[in-house]
Description:
The chain has 54 residues and is of the alpha/beta class. It has one domain (2-53): Rossmann fold. Helix content is 41%, strand content 31%. The protein is built from two helices and three strands, in the order βαβαβ. The chain has a three-stranded parallel β-sheet.
Amino acid sequence: MIRLVIADDHAIVRSGLKQLFALNADIEISGEAKTANNCWTACSAVRWTWCCWI
Length: 54
């Protein structure tokens, strides 16, 4: 299982990535963030395997 945190300042990009990753049963979205500070907060608050920051 890959646990992923998605970070991007555009909500439409985050939404699209969540929909794309939802197609794969081996990927779980553990969190998402709008800014760099939110990204570090999200990454420290959840257990994740990968952080996708675009």
